[in-house]
Amino acid sequence: MSTGRSKQRLLIHACCAPCSTVPLERLDSEYDLAVLFYGPNIHPRGEYQLRLADQRKLCRRLGVELIETEYRPAEWGRSIAPFRNLPEGSQRCRACFRLRMEQTARIADQRNFDLFTVTLTVSRHKNSKVLETIGRQVAEDFRVAYLAVDLKKKNGYNVSVQRSLEFELRRQDYCGCSLSLTEAIQRRRKSGTVER
Q1: H or E stretch at 98
Q2: pLDDT of 111-135, one tens digit each?
Q3: 17 near 169, Cβ under 8 Å?
Q4: Distance CA 9, CA 22 (A)
Q5: pLDDT in the model for residue 106
Q6: Chain centre to alpha carbon of residue 174
Q7: pLDDT reported for residue 5
Q8: In what order do the strands lie in the sheet with 31-37?
Q9: SS3 sequence, 74-97?
Q10: Quick check: bond before 44 cis, omega within 30?
């Protein structure tokens, strides 16, 4: 479909600025980018506010539009409730991915984006194939395509660490949810790392 635009519009879901650095750098020449900050999973509220502040800072610096949503942790709680006792990487995370992708696709459709994607594939702890499967399923329910891109490739994770240092972005040691925070605290205690 010809829209008269030179680039397709791509909406990128983000829940932290460090993981946003790589897609914003790699996809800028090919797409007209915007970022959606939607993080009902992020806990506590103070962490949400810190991540949003860094996302604003990064988007301002790079001249990228940032779309913000309301903080609605109850949405996340309802979506993962049946899987609450499962570990990270399980159906619990897949339900969380789906919730965030559905909102991204919904907003992309409402605002006439051509595609949507997620920054999650930067993480070494996230399975890109699982994300691609969910993204394609969600795309079928909306009038917007999912862009499958494994941002870990070409040393993506390490690039995100380097860009975070360059742009003075705060990095976290948990994905964001209360359950992963509990798991991170347990890891810190085992390793003797002081809580931040």
Answers
A1: helix 91-110
A2: 999 999 999 999 988 999 999 999 9
A3: yes
A4: 17
A5: 98
A6: 13
A7: 65
A8: 65-68, 31-37, 8-14, 115-118, 145-146
A9: HHHHHHHHHHCCCCCCCHHHHHHH
A10: yes
> Rounded to an integer, what distance in angstroms lies between the CA atom of residue 94 and that of residue 130?
8
Name the residue with tokens 């079928």: 140
DSSP state of 36: E
Pseudo-torsion of CA 167, 34, 37, 179, nearest 10°?
A: -80
Domains along the sequence of the chain with CATH: 8-191 (3.40.50.620)
Buried b (16+ CB within 10 A) or exposed e, 83-94: beeeeeeeebbb
Confidence of residue 173 (pLDDT cuts 50, 70, 90): confident
CB atoms within 10 A of CB 45: 10
Across 20-38, average pLDDT: 98
Q: How does DSSP classify residue 194?
A: P
Contact 88, 181 (CB under 8 A): no
Find the Cα–Cα–Cα–Cα dihedral 18, 163, 124, 188, rounded to 10°: -70
* pTM listed for this prediction: 0.91
**Cα angle 67-71-76, degrees, rounded to a multiple of 5:** 110
Residue with tokens 């750098």: 25
Angle separating helix axes 45-62 and 17-26, nearest 10 degrees: 30
